[in-house]
Specification:
15 helices; Extracellular solute-binding protein; D-Maltodextrin-Binding Protein, domain 2; 2 domains
Length: about 425
């Protein structure tokens, strides 16, 4: 395969290709672990508005040029999450070699290679924060912060809103009323994973800044969603829907559509992670958009909910683990590869800088002023499946569930996972 080409295969096509090769009694030289000197590494990747197929193509063209005999073959997740795609492939007996954006937990750690013995791994961002029982199964390129409110400067000026005064929930709600009166949807949301993620970006900044060990206490049965600060945020969300601050039709939008609606000026504010910055840059709108930390009734500025940016895992069932580890090492240690990946998604890493817009500078200033980066990993990692269940429960507020029901349902679900 030429180095400037990339094959995109669904799980069904991959399975068919493997069966065909077996039936013909050949083809081993073209797959991972073959004896002919050439190796194909299959990697599960997410495609996003920033991490496009073109992005992945160009990134791995660089690696292939430096490593003759290695071909990187991308598996796209399609409409499912990366972890679900991995489980699908494993169940089919057709494991990939590497997974991007899959975070191991105590129940799934055995599916991945322990990278603790790799001397390069310890210097990667948030390495210790993601440890599981002292072992390290995932490494990343940088850090993301996500408790951010991006806002349309023109909309704020038209509505008479001063962004520097939006620190408390009451101030934030007053601003939404003014923006609504000026003809804007105050707060942009969307379906898919966006709904629950935005709730997390907002609520975690408040609850976990006040009590960083809240998740540990929830695991130990010392607190619940219904009897903690999370109920307050469910109530806020329900109220914002009732008042039209959030559009009831938002669930019908996919992630790129919600982002586009904000960029096109249909809405005034957008809670999203630092990875929104490149989208604004690409649209030529960075100077027209401002950014502030999410509001809170507690410490201000609050901690920033954050995570490992561009995480990679090597799949234990891979037939080419050594080659896969080498590729992952390149992704997280090669200076050119790091800068390309940081810039693509607006991420940060100590010791690395790249040209950023005024909006990117605003995000950096927020990180610099934040009292902490809230990382829900290690002992502070929620029970497996929490993000998906939270997303489902938050979306139920759009269809008539009450805040109290959502909190109770989430507690019931959490306790059933123990």
């Amino acid at each position: 395969m030429p180095m400037n080409r990339r094959r995109f295969l669904t799980a069904g096509v991959l399975a068919s290709a493997v069966l065909t090769a077996s039936a013909c009694g050949g083809g081993d030289d073209d797959v991972a672990g073959g004896d002919g000197g050439d190796t194909t590494l299959r990697m599960i990747v997410n495609i996003t508005p920033n991490l496009t197929e073109q992005f992945w193509n160009e990134l791995f063209d660089l690696y292939e040029a430096e490593n003759p005999g290695i071909t990187v073959e991308l598996e796209l997740t399609g409409t499912i999450e990366a972890e679900a795609k991995l489980q699908q492939d494993l169940a089919a007996g057709d494991p990939p070699d590497i997974a991007q954006h899959v975070i191991p937990n105590p129940e799934t750690a055995e599916l991945f290679v322990d990278l603790s013995g790799e001397d390069w791994a310890a210097d990667t961002p948030l390495f210790e924060d993601y440890a599981i029982d002292g072992k390290h199964y995932v490494v990343g390129v940088g850090e993301q912060i996500q408790s951010l409110v991006f806002y349309n400067k023109a909309a704020f000026e038209e509505a008479g809103v001063d962004a520097t005064q939006l620190q408390t929930i009451a101030q934030f709600e007053d601003a939404m009323r003014k923006l609504q009166a000026a003809g804007y949807v105050p707060l942009q949301s969307a379906g898919q994973w966006v709904t629950g993620a935005q709730f997390t970006m907002l609520a975690d900044a408040g609850v976990l800044t006040e009590d960083p060990d809240w998740v540990v206490k929830r695991k130990d049965g010392e607190t619940t969603f219904a009897d903690s600060g999370y109920l307050r945020y469910f109530e806020l969300y329900e109220s914002w829907l009732d008042q039209g601050f959030l559009s009831q039709s938002a669930l019908g939008l996919e992630y790129p559509d919600g982002q586009a609606a904000f960029l096109e000026g249909e809405s005034a504010m957008y809670i999203m992670g630092s990875y929104f910055v490149p989208a604004a840059d690409d649209a030529g709108l960075s100077d027209q958009i401002g950014v502030i930390p999410v509001p809170t009734d507690g410490e201000y500025p609050p901690g920033q909910f954050g995570n490992m940016a561009q995480p990679y895992t090597v799949v234990e069932a891979s037939d080419a683990k050594e080659e896969a580890i080498d590729l992952v090492e390149w992704l997280v240690t090669d200076e050119e590869a790091i800068e390309i990946q940081l810039a693509a998604d607006g991420n940060l890493r100590k010791g690395f800088s790249y040209d950023v817009s005024s909006l990117g500078e605003g995000v950096q200033a927020i990180l610099d002023a934040s009292p902490m980066v809230i990382v829900k990993q290690g002992e502070r990692q929620p029970v497996h499946g929490y993000a998906e269940e939270l997303n489902t429960q938050v979306q139920s507020l759009f269809t008539g569930s009450s805040a109290g029901d959502v909190a109770t349902n989430l507690d019931t679900w959490w306790d059933s996972q123990r």
